[in-house]
Amino acid sequence: MPDIRPIYTPANVTFAYQLRWAMTLFINGNRPPIESIAPVTEALESDGIRVLSHRYSEPEMLQLTLSTLPHVSPQTIAQRVKGRLWYAWQSLGDVSIEKHYALRSYGTQDRETIEAYIAGQAAHHPMATERASNLFRDVNFIDESVHLDKPLSISRSFLWFNLHIVLVHAERWRNVNESIIGSTQKMVRCVCKKYGWRLSRCGIVADHMHLSVGANVSDGVQDMVLKFLNNLAFVYDMKPVYMFSAYVATFGEYDQRALRRGE
User: How open is the CA angle 259-260-261, to the nearest 5 degrees?
Assistant: First the structure.
């Protein structure tokens, strides 16, 4: 039996992305001067992590806002940020970083706004016939049992990792085949179940789809999107119906305006 090689790979898929995080670390001992973080921000760039802002909100609490490239997972963020800070502070005497932390995804809009937008996709893209309109109203769904406002608990740390994914048909080809649309929805749900992702909203229309998904600490955005794209190819007999690109953005309970007001 021949090997089934992925159609969509890191080499051929491009991303439009806005991946942002608010991170809280807890410091013991002497509090390092805030300017000591500057060389750490330069080193983190090579890890695909950019420090947007940093401050002490309390003597023992360091808060950072970050942006990341699509291949970076929350696990990598925690390891690299804490590791590089620890290394930079070794010459400053009695100082240590607690193992636990809080990492929260955020975006330009908050969770309620994003999820309401995805839930309304069928209404945003009305079809020419009642049959087609009903098809997309029926295939889209809201899972009320999924609460993306709740964090994952990881060894006394807390993670909010919510992702808005948009996948588009090549050349904006419009599909209204009831069987294929149903199989597309089923495949999305199967992929999420297989990898332990929490699918909260699914907005499928004729030429694209929107998803709101809660992911895990070891998940990289790039890898998640490739898994969706390659599994969806099975619905179309291994044809690359979807574009070799995706839009991805983090979101959470707070948007970037709220975080800026808190600085």
Answer: 90
